[in-house]
Amino acid sequence: MNNKKLRKKDRYQFIKHNKFLVIKIDDCDNYLTAYEQNELALICDTIRRERLKLDKPMNSYIIVNQDEPYAGDVWELIKNHELEA
User: Fold this and answer.
1) Contact 2, 16 (CB under 8 A)
2) How many folded domains does the chain comprise?
3) How far does Cα 72 stand from its chain's mean position?
């Protein structure tokens, strides 16, 4: 889940929402056929090329599994930083 930054007057709310799709590489290796892996690679390459056409950067993200015991602490850190901005 991800967060949404609200206007200053609405900052008392901080909303988590789904914005990204994360697929574990091991899951692709274990559960997708070679054909499916190739199709996924083609889709990802299409997205990459289209972003480049629009001069959008290739983003890099830090992922935290919500099942980890420290996930709540990470969320609070992000939330507090965003609310201070």
Assistant:
1) yes
2) 1
3) 17
C-beta of residue 85 within 8 angstroms of C-beta of residue 7: no
CA end-to-end span of the chain, whole Å?
20
Q: Which residue range forms the structural domain that includes residue 9?
A: 2-84
Q: What is the mean pLDDT of residues 60-85?
A: 87
Query: What sign does the dihedral 2-68-64-82 (CA atoms) show?
Result: positive
For residue range 1-46, list pLDDT tens digits in order. 445 555 554 545 566 677 888 999 999 999 999 999 999 999 999 9
Nearest CA-CA partner of 23 in 54, 44, 3: 44
